[in-house]
Amino acid sequence: MKFCLVTAIVGVLLLGSPARAAGEYNTNATLIYYDAVSNQTLDPQEPQNNSSFAQGTLMAIYDALVFLNEAGDPQPGLAMSWDYNEDLTVFTMRIRPGVTFHDGTALDAAAVLKNLERSVSLGNRAGAATVETMSQIAAMELIGSDTIRIRLKSPSGQMPYLLGGQAGMMISPATLNESTFGVTIKPVGAGPYKVRSFESNVRTVTTRNDAYWGGIEGRPAGFEHHFVPEARARLNAVRSGQANLALIEPRQIGEARAAGFAVQINEKNSSWELHANFTRDTVGKLKVRQAIMHAIDRPALADALGGGASRATVQLFARSSPVYQEDLERLYPFDQARARALLAEAGYPNGVDVSWLLLNTNEYKQMGEAIQAMLGEVGIRVKFDVVDVSQYTAFRRPPQRGDLLMVRWGGRPDPLQTFQESSGSTAVPWGAAAPEIDQLIDQARALVPGDPKRLAVMHRLARVTTEHVSHMTLMTRSAVYAYKPGCVSNLPPYLATGNDRINDTKIGATCK
Amino acid sequence: MSAAIFPAPGTAAPAVPLPPPSSFFKRFCRNRTAMISAIILLLIVLTAIFAPYLAPHDPARSSLRNILKPPSAMYLLGSDDLGRDVLSRLIFASRLSLVASVQAVAIALALGLPLGLISGYAGGWADTVIMRCNDALMSFPALILAVVIVGLLGPSLTNAMTAIGLVYAPRIMRVVRGSTLSVREEVYIRAARALGCGDARIIAYHVLPNVTGPLVVQATVLMGQALLAEAGLSFLGLGTQPPQASWGAMLGTAFPYMAQSPVPTIASGLVISVTVLCFNLIGDGIRDSVGRMRRSGD
Amino acid sequence: MNTFRYITRRIISTVPMLVLVGLITFLLIHITPGDPAAVVAGENASLQAIEEARHRLGLDQPFLIQFWHWLWAVLHGDLGTSFTSGKPVTELIFDRLPITLSLTAGATLIGLLIAVPLGVFAATKRGSWLDRITIFGTSLGIAAPEFFIGLLLVLVVALEWGWLPATGYVPFAEDPVEWLARLTLPSVTLGLGVAAELARQVRGSMIDVLSRDYIQTARAKGLSTLSIIVKHGLKNAAIPVVTVLGLQVRRLLGGTVIVEQIFAMNGVGSLAVRAVFLRDLPVLLGVALTTAVVVLLVNLLVDMSYGYFDPKVRSA
Amino acid sequence: MAEPLLELRDLTVQFPSPNGWLTVVDKVSFSVGRNDIVCVVGESGSGKSVTMQAAVGLVQPKGGRVTGGSVRFDGKELVGMSNRDLNRVRGDEIGFIFQEPMSSLNPAYTVGEQIAEVVRRHRGASRADAWKRAVEMLDRVHIASAASRAREYPHQFSGGMRQRVMIAMAVACDPKLLIADEPSTALDVTIQARILELLRELQRESGMSVLFITHDLGVVADIARRVVVMYGAQVVESASADELFARPRHPYTAGLLAAMPQVALERGQDPVAIPGTVAQAHAWPGGCRFNPRCVYRQEGACTTVPVPLEPVAPGQDALVRCALAASLSDTLREAVAA
């Protein structure tokens, strides 16, 4: 129970965060955000929406039971407080009183229960993150009007993190019935913005929810999320005033600054990853993977292609994350001689041929060609197998095409989730790179998020996965925003997940 | 007037021999624009053949330390987004682009020629079936059809060129069918058939020579169009895939950096435009030369 | 009235054509790799989830039955629902058709506005410097890749001079002025290509018409040069020009894909490209059918115009 | 002698060709009086059509140019007149009929519209009046049910009917001069006669002068009051019709007469064609241009010095361009005598 006190104090801190005086914001302008990610539908549990990239719009509409602060620690959201029993098998949550959905229905424990039961009933029709959360729940019951007790199938301290993502997003029970899924959803949430219109894969237009429990002080009158795949078009929109905020690619930073725009780089727990198929006898060998790690000149890659928004790293976590360890960076310095030696030791004195399943976009192909050239210099001959989105998933599932696959890793609320999905044998079809990885994951599951012992296990996991090259991290990825100077503020880097919360973004008084 | 109409008795109408090919080239050479374009095209083909000797640097060698450099003594046309020399890549890319266009037009000919001959010569139900399928294909906008084929076959240059070949086959088919129909009605064809010539011989000796004129014109123009189509597909990411690079692919990768370093984009854009222009002008030149030859022939 | 019967006969004859288009698209999708069910099931969905998605979408039925179901639905005016967004295809297409049609119309209009005067002027002043420029300019216009022109326009007009917005589309109903402003640049980009092709045709057919005897009669009647060219010349030169125009409209319907992406406008072209990447069969079929219908309508209009321009055709 | 309606003096016209500018009309002079019917006769390539087209400025659009001489029409000098002013003369004061009726009417407009157009242009008539005038003109050229036929298109008319429409169009504004450039050549003989009859009738009624361009001496005999014979871009003889048929002064004219089937029949002889063909415009023979084909050719006189066009005898109107004109006059007369 001690834990519950701590969360309440920190919660107040977040809400009252020092903000500029109310007069400083233009509260009748609309935040028009040109994004590179689209929402297929507005159903948080629907597979397309389940990736961390699609959270921006959903968070603004639905809010979530748990918020995560800059350090990645769970904070009270729609749930006032929560706590575990001794052996972490029972998770009790108290719902924040006095909160209503956009259609006026009360957001009480019964509403939360109905949402969670719906997610469970979706089974594996739902997205991966929701399935992962619901699979841990054995039973749920109401206690009074504002508390829910959840019995877990096995000890797991991850619930606060999991309920910080799509699984924790609450939809008005009045609109929920058995058949609502995907496109038939009526997007009525309890978040700061109400939906006015939605066109799949094009735009979502919302207006401010003046009855929002978190207050409306300084918030813009509305928020529009536009999906524009072409990066050039996104920047042009901000330059010609059709949008006041645009997600741009790192290579456009120079151009944006030259045009007199403010460029904000939000470092995130997100990175470019190279995954190897361990069943292949070439990249399956640890020495070959280590050779690849040594063959890549990460600093040059980050400077040339990161555009100032990326830093070389071998870890899955940003510098500001508690799990980050400086000494791990020295494990794989850029050393072509070492790489050739490792290849020879692995039995490939005159080089090795590997196939690389490459997604068919400019960004991926640029990175791919740069790395291909580097690996080529040490004798690792890469051949590309270019595919589009529909065949991209063939790396993990049969027919398991390609030895290597490059991924834009989006980060997860709970560091443990990151290791589970990228290195643990639950998610990786060919098992973990080393048995110790699975043992450490199970150890961490039985620990509560705030517990220092859990952090120690995280550090150990980071070292082991890096030493055994279960993933080949290349460089960090940041969200890069462009907007007219002074026009957009309060865009906190939401460290835990790959996405940035647009909920609290405000528009400068002088801008329209 | 009377003297001219009724030639003096005793002299038979002079048989007008089909002009020898040399007169075709003489007429083509007199067409200045066509000649200039032919010379430029020849230069481009030569650069493609002797690319290794002409390119100042190795096109694939990237140096991430100097990306997007402006044109300088070292990089005559500047460096691209991975620090490779744009000029060398353009020179090597010419091989890929020209071969790709030839492949596309070859496929279009391989499909269009026989189908055109059959539907033009045989006529009847064969003609209607082929024409209906042809119309159905033609009702697809060319680019969408190409995107569908490449998107489904998987993005690669060969697939892109197969798609472009398929998309242009109906055009070749129409040209061939048109010429075949016009020849089939000629008297000398009926005369030949009356003499017992088999269809194959008739097609070979009578239809084909007459079809080659317009066919060569259409093929030349299509060579240019294939280059443009490949550039379009590459822009959508469906044309050439790394590490290969065609002109279209180079334009596609350079164009996002147009603001900081316009030279690579303008260079690749211009190279494509000039080559396609040469193909078009040569096509016009051939059509004029062939046109006049045929007219004075009959 | 035989023109009415002529139109109905033409429309009836398009039905088998549309079925053929549908069949060809179905065939194209089914003989090639890439699995729509996998896309719908999501990135790391389990095998079982994919099979369930395949059943839900009816993709596990044999090819012909799928085609028949689709055809039967189309005959009832229902183009089915999109795999990926679950929205009815008709709605998806009709949301975006105005964009592509506006672009096509804009480009055609600009094409005509440039091509007709240029072509006529070049034809009447043969061999003059203007004639040579037209020939060279049009050849270059045909040769340059469209998005290369579009890009230069955006860079200079929209961003450097800031005269016109660079991206986005605003429906006509919402704000006609903004609609026009947004359409200008992309229409000019596409329009230049159309103008190049058209100007060559206008010049060619005008030269031919001006050498005809009835033009000499018109001159002998003392008509003004303007009325000789416009009234007598253009009407007869129109038929080959209209044919080329019809071809250009068909090319534009699909060809706007790239310009749509540069100017961030969601037209039917981009919808089709996305549908290909996501193996969204109903959307692709819907787009194929719609473009085919529009193309056949355009062909019908072109043939009808022959009647207007050449009375001999009308009575045939 | 009142001032002639139309007077050509030394009109010279050139056309571009691969071997430079060619003179296709070389210093042609003749005149057409008022209420007069003149025929210009010559083989094709003699420049007869080009002469008249040049006179009214119809050759410039085809690349031709008038490089000398003058054309005075009704007190106005046409050579050098701006196209805008020429437009006011053409169609109003000078009507033109062409040789190819099949292609001389605009297929895209109704017959009535094309006639009404010239009336509206020159008479500033309203649309209704111009249409009424058009129907009236169709009636005048004997086209049955003119009102309904006016709404039909050229392709619905036969060759002969189209020529009638052309005539209606040419005379719609009551021109002072009608130039008929081989109007009946493309028609078969029966229709030819009726067209000539119509022209003669119109001429009588309106008193306009008609200038006939033809290669067929039968037409000349039938209709002409005065004749101008052209050969090799030059006028070789001009005289009254009767005088020309009775006493041709130029061997070429005699040859043409001898070749006429009707004349040969009267004399019970076969028509004798003139041997050889007219030379190319860029390769005129020296001296008299007819000498290579002239049976009476005399070396020196005919072959060296260019032969001038002179009156047949002092004070006579008739002119001839033949070095031996005086001595040949009797021999030629016997050659054609019945």
What features would you describe in this structure?
- The complex is a heterotetramer of chains A (512), B (298), C (316) and D (338).
- Chain A is α+β, with helices and mostly antiparallel strands and 512 residues long.
- Helices cover 29% and strands 22% of the residues of chain A.
- Chain A starts with a helix and ends in a 5-residue tail after the last strand.
- The N terminus of chain A is likely disordered.
- Chain C has 316 residues and is mostly helical.
- In chain C, 79% of the residues lie in helices and 0% in strands.
- In chain C, 51% of the residues are buried.
- Chain D is built from 12 helices and 12 strands.
- In chain D, strands 6-7-8-3-9-10-12-11 form an 8-stranded mixed sheet, sandwiched between helices. In chain D, strands 2-1-4-5 form a 4-stranded antiparallel sheet.
- The mean pLDDT of chain D is 86.
- Classes of the chains: A alpha+beta (512), B mainly alpha (298), C mainly alpha (316), D alpha/beta (338).
- At the B-C interface, α6, α7, α10 and α12 of B face α1, α6, α7, α10 and α11 of C.
Draw up the topology in text:
The complex is a heterotetramer of chains A (512), B (298), C (316) and D (338).
Chain A: H1 2-15, E1 30-35, H2 55-62, E2 66-68, E3 74-76, E4 79-84, E5 90-95, H3 109-122, H4 128-134, E6 137-143, E7 147-152, H5 159-162, E8 193-199, E9 203-208, E10 222-227, H6 231-239, E11 245-248, H7 253-258, E12 262-276, H8 286-295, H9 298-306, H10 336-345, E13 352-359, H11 362-377, E14 380-387, H12 389-392, E15 404-409, H13 415-422, H14 435-445, H15 452-467, E16 472-483, E17 488-489, E18 506-507
Parallel strand pairs in A: 1-10, 1-11, 13-14, 13-15
Antiparallel strand pairs in A: 2-3, 4-5, 5-7, 6-7, 8-9, 9-10, 11-16, 12-15, 12-16, 17-18
Chain B: H1 2-5, H2 21-30, H3 32-49, H4 51-54, H5 86-122, H6 124-138, H7 142-153, H8 157-184, H9 187-194, H10 199-235, H11 247-254, H12 262-297
Helix pairs in contact in B: 2-12, 3-5, 3-12, 5-6, 5-8, 5-10, 7-8, 8-10, 10-11, 10-12, 11-12
Chain D: E1 6-17, E2 20-32, E3 37-41, H1 48-55, E4 65-73, E5 76-77, H2 83-89, E6 94-97, H3 111-123, H4 127-140, H5 146-149, H6 159-171, E7 177-181, H7 189-206, E8 209-214, H8 217-223, E9 226-231, E10 234-240, H9 241-246, H10 251-259, H11 261-266, E11 310-311, E12 319-320, H12 325-336
Parallel strand pairs in D: 3-8, 3-9, 6-7, 7-8
Antiparallel strand pairs in D: 1-2, 1-4, 4-5, 9-10, 10-12, 11-12
Helix pairs in contact in D: 3-4, 3-6, 4-6, 6-7, 10-12
